[in-house]
Amino acid sequence: MVTPVDDAKHRARDEExxxxxxxxxxxxxxxxxxxxxxxxxxxISLATKDIKDADIxxxxxxxxxxxxxxxxxx
Length: 74
Hints:
Blueprint: H1 4-25, H2 30-37, H3 41-59, H4 63-67
């Protein structure tokens, strides 16, 4: 059973990752984000790419339209 505390922890983590997505979309490199939050560039890249890929898959909009709101490249 998921408790309200668990929900709050998951929500806080989701918000943290969305902050990374916003940072990358504004041009911050994953190495800089990683240094700031104490994670590797690979961890930041994987977490943010998962969000971007899920958004593209589930949005119902053309991939190029969705991808334009994110960072360029991998």
